[in-house]
Input
Amino acid sequence: MVRIRTKREIDLITTSCQIVADTLDMLSEHVKPGARIIDLDKKAEDFIRSRGARPAFKGYLGFPATLCVSVDDEVVHGIPNDRVLEDGQIVSIDCGAEKEGYYGDHARTFAIGNVSLEKRKLMEITRESLMRGIAEAESGNFVSDIGHAIQSYVEGFGYSVVRELVGHGIGTELHEDPQVPNYGRPKQGYKLREGMCIAIEPMINMGVKEVKTDSNGWTIRTADGEASAHFEHTIAITATGPEILSKGVELRG
Ligand code: MG
Ligand code: MG
Output
């Protein structure tokens, strides 16, 4: 069931989204060579709790941490551990928060130290594909118009779109209907309406689209070992178009 949110509900979702965006802004100065991933996770959890919210991923289907931290060929759902970030890696950090029963979800990929031009380009194109997907999230368009915009853009650079994982509705649950694939033909699926809140999250691979799951049951990585990037925003569909609710300092201007 696709839920339509009131203005008050969108304000509550925005509050949770802002906490997540502030968390990633706070982390950005710590995400560098030598950082232990488990320490980043602790910082994020403390920060979210200090804002009167709860880490939304911790305990979700048994996930053990506040952040999903996915390095290089890891696509999403990397579990924080003792690993140390190294120069040249790209790292997706995905974070969720819940406050007063409403959820926010947001992810960015960070460059660690000096990253190759190849990886930097993958990050930039993935971020831009998210913005192009968001631009399609207008009342009257269809869910698949979002994925079509993302897929046609990134495939033009020879990249591929992960099929197994998709964006989603969000609000009083972390994952709600509809599913929001990052691929597809235009004008399929649900028609977008004012008041819908969705998380759009392209996962873009430098090589093949296929992925595999680690034996821990969580970490998804590319089948060919090539790098993958991931960006995500929670947005609301409003009368005047898509509104990004998870704006960090960069987008707030
Ligand atoms: Mg997320
Ligand atoms: Mg999500």
In short: Residues 105, 168, 199, 201, 232 surround magnesium ion (ligand 2) (CB under 6 Å).
